[in-house]
Amino acid sequence: MIERALISEFKKAVGAEHCTTDPADLALYAYDATTVEGNPDCVVFPATTDEVAAALRLANDARVPVVPRGAGTGLSGGAVPVKGGIVLSLARMNKIIEIDRANLVCRAEAGTVTGVIASAAVAQGLYYPPDPSSINFCTIGGNVAHNAGGLHALKYGVTKNYLLGLTAVLPGGEVLKTGVRTMKGVVGYDLTKLICGSEGTLAVVTEVTLKLIPHPPHRAVAVASYPTAKAAGEAVSAIIAARILPAMLEFIDNTSLRCVEDYLKVGFPIDAGALLLVEIDGRPESVRAELDTAVEILKKNGATSLSFADDPVGCERLWEARRAVAPSLGKASPRRISEDITVPRARIPDALERIGDIGRKHAIPTAVFGHAGDGNLHVNLLADQRDLAIRPRMQAAIEDILRLALDLGGTLSGEHGVGLAKKSCLGWEIGADGMRILREIKKTFDPNNILNPGKILPEIGSE
Amino acid sequence: MIERALISEFKKAVGAEHCTTDPADLALYAYDATTVEGNPDCVVFPATTDEVAAALRLANDARVPVVPRGAGTGLSGGAVPVKGGIVLSLARMNKIIEIDRANLVCRAEAGTVTGVIASAAVAQGLYYPPDPSSINFCTIGGNVAHNAGGLHALKYGVTKNYLLGLTAVLPGGEVLKTGVRTMKGVVGYDLTKLICGSEGTLAVVTEVTLKLIPHPPHRAVAVASYPTAKAAGEAVSAIIAARILPAMLEFIDNTSLRCVEDYLKVGFPIDAGALLLVEIDGRPESVRAELDTAVEILKKNGATSLSFADDPVGCERLWEARRAVAPSLGKASPRRISEDITVPRARIPDALERIGDIGRKHAIPTAVFGHAGDGNLHVNLLADQRDLAIRPRMQAAIEDILRLALDLGGTLSGEHGVGLAKKSCLGWEIGADGMRILREIKKTFDPNNILNPGKILPEIGSE
Asked: Is B126 close to A243, i.e. CB distance below 8 A?
């Protein structure tokens, strides 16, 4: 518990009306999009970088944990205050500071909703590509903390590829300005890209400088259905091997497509073993030619039906459907576990087959969807993780799935991050020497371990 | 001086014939592409990661400086052994380990020449875009150490955008495997991108995993001449503001183009105030359409002549000419200083005008060329930096140019790095808190300060 005197100091720092200890309020900040919970002692809502610095100084002096929070849409427990303390919400820092059309750069406060930035860019004929499924709710600060991906990462890359610079506050209240607002910069160690993906454990990001690119003038999406997940996986590998780089190449298995169809009535063929969504963008004349080539490969790999959208409304509808896959699985199975492995793209058919085996072995129903073009598969275990009779089997299945990812030359997480969910197996991928470096970097930034403690790094001795 | 017993140990570690203390050999490893020199005590040529680890352990135990070296083409003094010790040449580790066509990934040893990787990719219909002017000599390890850019960074990004993972050896001989060989990965702090750009001060990179992309099927280059540098600069800003992203958008001023014309006889119009080289790539039908739009803007901004190349040989000839600018200036003025500032692209006309003013103020002739589309300008001071009567004026001019870059919202270095050349002004850009973090990161990786000591970080007290 935090002392009342300290709460008063926080109220002074951010304004009494922007600091709450009301249990009803605290309950709202006890969770993220996982099922883990942890009650904070206090939630503060600073409005400026200086207020963030003041709050951090207070917390650091008192050795009180601080959990930075965007919109709480994270999928690895990153925003859950498992050790109590302060939730530092960036919700009031939600302004786009500037869209510089002449330089193709955007500056925004960390609490700005990513979709707001994307729309503001589009209004200027520009494009901010990273689009996690939660784009209409999540914040750019959370995206930076987790290096968020999205539907268009295959061609356009992830948050880190668009992050030029940061304003970030260290636990002692020092305000760091990292990076550049130019297209290049190689001056000193890259703190921007180190803080990006550090899940709020190194510094609190308050402002971001993003690179924008010209908006592609045209796009078209093909939807192809396959009799089996494996056949669809083979088509993905064939497209990549044919050196086509679609803007989007998404995979949805039968269970996932039935769920989303039930939820949204998109008109997907619910008997298909799996669907692929393939988007090509660019100038209209190239889109047509490249889509023809892609469709030929889709057919050659056994597509049983094909449909198309080549207008903005139709494409947006398919994106919405794809984005609705996770929520619709969540609706059908609220206490499921959603995994996030990434494998080399040629190994997708193997991965899909072995994920099926793992589900059967542990008698846990699975649903798989994801950014197949990246090799990033979201494996969902459709059971109640709070059911103590089932939970050990789910844990065993997860362990098998994570080991499978590493076996196939992949990684434990493509875009959800480590947070609480994967810290116990971080060492499998990073190794002992890497873990030592990670711990020392943490100590360099946050010597008192007040920033999002208990995330990413396992407690010493538990590795 | 290193003790003879230690030299014997190095000979045991890498083989006697791969370790030299012959003064004639040492003289060859005393310099890079700058004019700074510093004699090593010994040069070792390990053939494997294990041999690198063995050599580092010996040096670390004896507290002897180790300077990793690729091809010595660096432009900031990064490979110069200014504190003596061991030069650790990666020249024997020069093999492409694998080009994985199915996953669009290349693995190579750090001493592999970048152009060899690029050609091997092309042979598979794939593309490794980062192409510094020294592409046919420099090594991928050096590119990673400096996060090298190149002619095509505007559209395709720099080395860091293609670097998926590393094998790197810490000073104590621990072998780190960082990153992934998948398209995504967010597991732990990003050591891959931290080591990239650290100029050999944190670890010795021995192997790299690179992302490849499909090779663009077609390209065309327009060469436009302008009466003044400023007019050309305005055309650059106009192209970016029109939301066209050429594959290449290069600027060459009159002095530079006269030099390269003298050297290569390309047929450039030597009376032009400046030239722009604008390359568009993609599918043939889009290339034509986008080039038309770009040419319209070039004309509207006062182009006085225009010529084109749309075949591979013609394009390659223009790239060669552009790559020859720096060597030809070097031939004309061997002891010049080559700067590397980057400014927001809309500020290029201002930058060009004020660089002219600075040259006149200090009575030092200048030549400017560079990756204008990125805002990355190579400002050359054409005088003899060893002439003690001129040197103070050159130093004053450089200081003015670096301050100008920061004034315009830019950065001290776009792609050459800090090395020795800019360490004294690193703090101007990074700030005191950032410098503290940088120093602590250095200490985390290299507690005994044996790895490339004296580079990037200024000696304490000299900031």
From this structure: yes
